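SAMPLE LOG
Freezer: B-3
Tube label: C17
Construct: single chain, 406 aa
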Amino acid sequence: MAQDVYISHHLTNRDVADSIRKSLDVNKIDSWMVPKDKDPENEWSPSIVNAIKETKIFVLILSLKSNESPLTSKEVEMAKNYGKTIIIFKLEDIKPSNLNFIESDNIIDSTEATKSNKPYDEDIEKLVTKIQSLLIEAPELEVPPKMIDPHSKRTAAIGSVLIILMVISGYLIPLPYNWLLILVLLLGFFILLGYTKGNWNRILVDERNQMSLSRFQTVVWTLIILSAFFAMALASIKVGVTNPTANQVDLAKALDIGVPWQLWAIIGISITSLVGSPLILSTKKDLTVVDQEREDYYQKKLDERNMKAEGTVCVNQTIEQAKFTDIFTGDEIADCRRIDMAKVQMFFFTIIVVVAYSVLIFKTMMDATPNNLEFPILSQGIIALLAISHGAYLTEKAVPSTPTKK
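STRUCTURE (predicted):
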């Protein structure tokens, strides 16, 4: 995910960089800088290259140390090569060694604050105002019409093949084996939708750039129910088409597959969690940590994991950081490294019910005739347990774990 601002600084100016970043966060401006646990003077990581390449504005915190730093010189050179807008936040009265010319409007002079040992708040406010004006004025890049993403074309082609194979296999292969094959092909189609640049899991990634439990369980139930309905419908259509006495009404009845209310309840519960989860988290994005000491502590922990805070919600810097263990960890900056037992419970309960229901579907298909197909009925007790599990998941998500100002 592209960031608005890249903050280039020397380790000795980290406190200034942190202050700038916090001010940008307050003003809803995305920023990126080298995490605290990295030693950029000895470690040039690909994440630095990607961050500079994708950013819109490059901010250089200019000091004697940063002016002598090989890393800073490398960062500035890369920003120039990529044509980025460069702003200098000047801490000391020196000229940047690797910039021959910079517009005076793009220089925030904070040397007086440095000399008098005063806070940089006023100058940081000027910097944020300048960045806001540049972001508003910056025109959107137009993509030439001939530049078609080859990945999109390849995805469309493979996706079409998978859909065709689902139809052919569902029509030619008898139940329940056609369902198993359709299930595998549909899983491949879902993976294809989420596959980008070596990452297969993007269909499970939410707006925080983390793998989401609510998205996981919705995808799993969609896979099972949709593939089973597809297999049953194709098997029923095959009987109608191959029956010489079948009329239009008989063919229309091919889609008249029995769906019990319990299945609708499962779909409703899953969608409620999928929609409710981001709604609950959105209420926490405007909250502020109770005091500066705790905020600094949480920020340090986030920097160690190359994450950032949106209010009290922890967010990955890029979508590439999403991993499977995100499903089990907390959502707030106070508990994003801890295991959330409500999530663990919901995950395993979902897996158990899905596996058990899949076996029921398979057995039902084995015993049923194409003219009398229906989904198996789940017990009301199972529905109640699912509802309680999802309710606990959403309740746990709603209860704040980070101390905030009232």
